[in-house]
């Protein structure tokens, strides 16, 4: 084919392609519009039929109520002589029926149109005393027929539907006429509220084309078409809509595709700017016509969607030819690209394997170092624990050294007495005075028991502690510590004041460790009061909730303010060289901390140092149902 011919064919194809696109989109839009419009019409007809049935059912379920109330004896009796009776029982009866039936109001009118009793007797806008002779429902009922009426209430200004029935005092006479009218008013707001939930606009127009009910509040009490002056005056004379202006709703009919169906729009208001498909359904039983307006936006969207889909499909078909010849070229390029990718992935895999091996070696080495450090830390903690226990035992032995002088004095006196009693017993035996010798031997036995008790105290204090906390009696611990310092207290003339409750005080602690801390604190207090003229040692126990505070107070020189922050530091001491290592208070604080408590130090208000131990309170072995822990003999 010559080059010129191929160029003309290409130009013709470029010209036909957009024309074919426009034709395809136009035909698809027409088909979609007809189908969407048909579906919209079917939906509107179904919703219109259901809404009409719902409106008829809502209004018709109350038409029995006026006849029922008109036949009640209380109503007839009151209507026979209303001037001589109290209307309140009848008002309450009507109010009960109103609440039970779910209507707005119920009221009784006499033959002159005056309201005698009403369910809203207690409201400011009550119907009692109002004349409704002008209402058609009264005129129909007083003529002996059931009445129906719709309109605005004179007092409440609410839209309602009225049912009326005649009240007969004597319905047997041929020329008898009703003596009153019973009226039931039903509001329409509940039904309109259900309409607002639908995807459509619903309108109810009367025979004068006045929109009496609508799902949109802005459309209520408006006219479908502008009213002439005569029409407006005629409506005002009926007083059906009071003095409402009845302005036009602004509806424009743009097309009438079929019977009872229209295409409408709005010039103003909340529905302005959209087109609607309008269908209507007559309701001859009420003299109304029910209208439904369905937005045509789905139809327009269906048109555009079909046009776009047709255009897209046309474009796919057109592009399919251009895509075909590119497949071979793209396949060749993909194969080349895949080959490059395989080579690249192979290099990346090799590099990754090398990195993994190198990282694995690093992790193994790091793990080995961490394992060694963990083992070293465990050994260090074990050595630290052993060193701490040795320091605790050393501190106890140091306290034993401080007690040695007093205990030596305590032992020397019984020893001297034993020697004297033994010599006397020997002399008495030589003289055959066995009774006197037995008395001396009894004294020797008593003195040896006393020496055994002193040595037991030292042995008990030097023993190691247990592993698990138990229930410990604080007064018993104080008693044991005081017995260790019995000779020093007596020789130094120290008075001891005990301040704790009568009942037993128990803490959760280790017996040996707590005794060691109390011995250490009492020993420090005795050293601090060595140069005090009237030394006094105060021991206190104060239960406070879940805790118990144990206090040791002396009246010595106290603790200097500069030393309060360092008093629990290891090897810190204010004593002269050779008098102590400065470990007693540090070890005591560590012991109390291990027991779950705390040890604090400050100066007492009256002078002297005050040490406070705070430990968890324990109910005691009897309260917990366990056995009382065994204590050494010196605690008896």
From TrEMBL:
<dbReference type="InterPro" id="IPR003594">
    <property type="entry name" value="HATPase_dom"/>
</dbReference>
<dbReference type="InterPro" id="IPR003661">
    <property type="entry name" value="HisK_dim/P_dom"/>
</dbReference>
<keyword id="KW-0812">Transmembrane</keyword>
<feature type="domain" description="Histidine kinase">
    <location>
        <begin position="406"/>
        <end position="619"/>
    </location>
</feature>
<dbReference type="Pfam" id="PF02743">
    <property type="entry name" value="dCache_1"/>
</dbReference>
<keyword id="KW-0597">Phosphoprotein</keyword>
<keyword id="KW-0067">ATP-binding</keyword>
<keyword id="KW-0418">Kinase</keyword>
<feature type="transmembrane region" description="Helical">
    <location>
        <begin position="304"/>
        <end position="325"/>
    </location>
</feature>
<keyword id="KW-0997">Cell inner membrane</keyword>
<dbReference type="GO" id="GO:0005524">
    <property type="term" value="F:ATP binding"/>
</dbReference>
<dbReference type="InterPro" id="IPR005467">
    <property type="entry name" value="His_kinase_dom"/>
</dbReference>
<keyword id="KW-1003">Cell membrane</keyword>
<keyword id="KW-0547">Nucleotide-binding</keyword>
<protein>
    <recommendedName>
        <fullName>C4-dicarboxylate transport sensor protein DctB</fullName>
        <ecNumber>2.7.13.3</ecNumber>
    </recommendedName>
</protein>
<dbReference type="InterPro" id="IPR036097">
    <property type="entry name" value="HisK_dim/P_sf"/>
</dbReference>
<dbReference type="GO" id="GO:0005886">
    <property type="term" value="C:plasma membrane"/>
</dbReference>
<dbReference type="GO" id="GO:0000155">
    <property type="term" value="F:phosphorelay sensor kinase activity"/>
</dbReference>
<dbReference type="Pfam" id="PF00512">
    <property type="entry name" value="HisKA"/>
</dbReference>
<dbReference type="InterPro" id="IPR033479">
    <property type="entry name" value="dCache_1"/>
</dbReference>
<dbReference type="InterPro" id="IPR036890">
    <property type="entry name" value="HATPase_C_sf"/>
</dbReference>
<keyword id="KW-0472">Membrane</keyword>
<dbReference type="Pfam" id="PF02518">
    <property type="entry name" value="HATPase_c"/>
</dbReference>
<keyword id="KW-1133">Transmembrane helix</keyword>
<keyword id="KW-0175">Coiled coil</keyword>
<feature type="coiled-coil region">
    <location>
        <begin position="335"/>
        <end position="397"/>
    </location>
</feature>
<dbReference type="InterPro" id="IPR004358">
    <property type="entry name" value="Sig_transdc_His_kin-like_C"/>
</dbReference>
<dbReference type="InterPro" id="IPR017055">
    <property type="entry name" value="Sig_transdc_His_kinase_DctB"/>
</dbReference>
<keyword id="KW-0808">Transferase</keyword>
<dbReference type="InterPro" id="IPR029151">
    <property type="entry name" value="Sensor-like_sf"/>
</dbReference>
<keyword id="KW-0902">Two-component regulatory system</keyword>
<feature type="region of interest" description="Disordered">
    <location>
        <begin position="614"/>
        <end position="636"/>
    </location>
</feature>
